[in-house]
């Protein structure tokens, strides 16, 4: 090995999340041995995305179209808006295909430690979308972290007078979760939100 | 998400060894958010390899040059030849940079079950290299599997009359290995090959 091109490819791949130097080398070898069925298709797929890459002006999603496929999907309920921290969260919410509305990506979370204030997030565009009318419910789907909760409370306050109902995701025992492995915070929340057995 | 280009890229990446559908999506997102510093360099690295990809006519290594960088390296000892099953094994041996000689890739191992006979492996070219003279020792570095051992014994027999010394890798406790986690076969081999404490 040790050809400079192969080393460079190994390094480029090893910077992807989930791939270390060792698995990157394995991936390179996989590609080298499958020029037609793996290497060329991967190059083509990357180029197709690179050429069309765009950030949605409406919601902040990353897509190959602007506005993105979610914002332009006519089957989605325009009255429902789900606010998330990052594009990854939007994809995670959308993967389950359970949320029938549209999204808004903040681009982060409020963080005193990292010096992230309201002006650094896509909050003004969010307020503009809500104030433009047509939205009835805003679901605040921040991560269940301290900073996520801070961001959620800040947004709930800003949205209080907009005439929309503001909701948050339920906390509780994750599906498949075992009590023995859960932290006390989650158990406390699940207990507080307990409901009659149907 | 759900743009066809992004889905295609996700699928192409998820076919790499070590990346499942979930980590492929994370990798895609990583690339999309870093168009200039990750996506474009990865495309360039893949293209550079794709354009120059070659299988070495001498040893069977995959490289961007033919003959490959290992075969043309003047610092390597031409009298020493290490025979391996796959290109991955060559890279693994070469990673440690402890073997100062050259290599020969068989392209597999003898396997009655999979119907792989001597004619399916790069054995004739190996014999030709050895018979051409100049090689003094052939190290048979097959994997320590049943099929690797079969292949090794077959090659040792073929090489017996060539006037070269034929050696194999030592078996034993791997460095950092704990006896409690080793199989009996390895412990038996390590015990059989025990030597005085220096």
From TrEMBL, chains A, B:
Q: Which GO terms describe its molecular function?
A: DNA binding; zinc ion binding
Q: Give residue ranges for domain Toprim.
A: 79-174
GO biological process terms on file: DNA recombination; DNA repair
- Superkingdom as given in the UniProt entry: Bacteria
Q: Does the keyword Zinc-finger apply?
A: yes
InterPro entries per UniProt: DNA_Rcmb_RecR, Rcmb_RecR, Rcmb_RecR_Znf, TOPRIM_dom, TOPRIM_RecR
Q: Which UniProt keywords apply?
A: DNA damage, DNA recombination, DNA repair, Metal-binding, Zinc, Zinc-finger
Q: Where are the zinc fingers (C4-type)?
A: 56-71
Similarity remark: Belongs to the RecR family.
PANTHER family according to UniProt: RECOMBINATION PROTEIN RECR
Q: What does this protein do?
A: May play a role in DNA repair. It seems to be involved in an RecBC-independent recombinational process of DNA repair. It may act with RecF and RecO.
Protein name (database record): Recombination protein RecR
Give the originating organism: Sphingosinicella microcystinivorans
């Amino acid at each position: 090995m040790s050809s400079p091109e192969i080393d460079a490819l190994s390094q480029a791949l090893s910077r992807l999340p989930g791939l270390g130097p060792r698995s990157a080398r394995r991936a390179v070898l996989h590609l080298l041995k499958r020029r037609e069925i793996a290497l060329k298709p991967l190059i083509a797929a990357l180029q197709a995305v690179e050429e069309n890459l765009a950030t949605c002006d409406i919601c902040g999603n990353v897509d190959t179209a602007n506005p993105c496929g979610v914002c332009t999907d006519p089957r989605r309920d325009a009255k429902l808006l789900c606010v998330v921290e990052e594009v990854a969260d939007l994809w995670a919410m959308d993967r389950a295909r359970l949320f029938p509305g549209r999204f808004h990506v903040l681009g982060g979370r409020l963080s005193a430690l990292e010096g992230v204030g309201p002006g650094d997030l896509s909050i003004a565009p969010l307020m503009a979308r809500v104030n433009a009318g047509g939205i009835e419910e805003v679901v605040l789907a921040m991560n269940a972290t301290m900073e996520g909760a801070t961001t959620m409370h800040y947004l709930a306050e800003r949205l209080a007078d907009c005439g929309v109902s503001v909701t948050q995701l339920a906390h509780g025992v994750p599906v498949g979760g075992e009590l023995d492995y859960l932290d006390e915070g989650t158990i406390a929340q699940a207990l507080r939100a307990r409901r009659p057995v149907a």
